[in-house]
Amino acid sequence: MASVESAKVEKVRVGALTGRWMDYVELTKPRITVMMLVAVAVAAYVANWGQPNWTLMAHTVVATALVACSASASNQWLERFTDRMMSRTARRPLPAGRMSSKEVLVFAAATLVGGTGYLLMVAPWDAAVWAVGTWVVYVVIYTPLKTKSEFNTAVGAVSGAMPLCIGWTAASGGYDLRLAALFLTMFLWQFPHFMAIAWLYRHQYSQAGLKMMTVVEPTGRRAGVQAVLAAGALLPVSLIPAISGPVPGAGWYAALVLLLGVAQLACAVIFFAQRSEESARLLLRASLVYLPALLGLLLILPLA
Fold it and tell me: How many domains does the chain have?
C-alpha cells in the first residue's frame, strides 16, 4: 500500500515539474522564437554565399535564442493584464497565475544578460548590438505602443526584421545590398501576416484595449490596403538576392519567388475585397507558406 501511495506522490511531483517546464517554454513564445532563429541561421548562411562557419552559426543561434526568450518573457510580463482580457492569451502562465511576476522578471533578466554576453564572446560586437537593439525595440517600444497607436505593427515589423542583422553580422561582419533586401523582405512580409491576424482577433484586441489597425479602423479597409501594398512590394524586393552577385541559379530562383509572391498578393487582394474570416485565414495560411518557402530557396540559391 505504501508503495502505491509513493508512486502517486512521485507521479504528482513529476507532473508538477513537467507543468512548470512547459510554463517556461510557453513564456518564450516558441513558435515565434523558432521562426526568428531560422531567419538568423539563414542570414548567416547567405552572408557567406552558402559557406558559413557552422560552429559560429550554432553559437550565434543559441545566444540569440536566449535574447529572444528574454524578449518574449518581458513582453508577456508587460502584457499580463491585457492578456487576461483575451481568450487566446488568458491561459498564459502569468495571467493564469501559474507563474509570479518575480519569476518571469528573473528569467527575462538572466536570459538577456546571458545571451548578450554569449554573443560578445563568440561573434563580432555589432551582432550583440543588433540583439540588444532588437530587444529594446520589441520590449520597450513596440509592446507599450500596442495600447497607444495603430503604428505598433510597423514598429513590430522592424523588430521582427532586425534579427536577420544578428546572423548576418555574426557571420560576415559587413553589410551589403543582400542584407538590405532580406531586412525589407522580413519587414514587408509581416504586414499581410499580421493584418490577417488582426482581423481574425479584432474583437479580442478591442476588448483588451489594443490599438490594432482593425480596431482603430474597424471596416478593415486600411488593413487590407496595407496587406496588398506590402505583398506587392515584396515582389521586386525578393528578387534582389538573385541579381546582387554571381548566382548561377538566379533564373529559377526568380521564377519560384515570383510565383510565391503573386500567390500571396492574390490572397491579400481577396482579403482586401472581402474582409471576411475566410479571406483572412486564407491570407494567413499564404503568409505562413511564403516565408519558409522563401527562406528555403535562399538556402538553395548559393548551391545552384
Answer: 2
8 A C-beta contact, residue 181 and residue 168? no
pLDDT single digits (tens) 20-70: 899 999 999 999 999 999 999 999 998 887 788 999 999 999 999 999 999
130 and 254 in a common domain: no
C-alpha cell of residue 242: 538573385
Sign of the C-alpha dihedral computed for residues 223, 145, 190 and 85 taken in this order: negative
State which residues form the domain around 245: 176-304
Q: Are residues 257 and 149 in the same domain?
A: no
What does the alpha-carbon distance between residue 131 and residue 164 come to, in Å, rounded to a whole number?
A: 10
Kindly report the pTM of this predicted structure.
Answer: 0.91
Nearest to 55 by CA among 44, 67, 65: 44
Nearest to 226 by CA among 180, 178, 187, 281: 187
DSSP code string of 47-58: HTTT---HHHHH
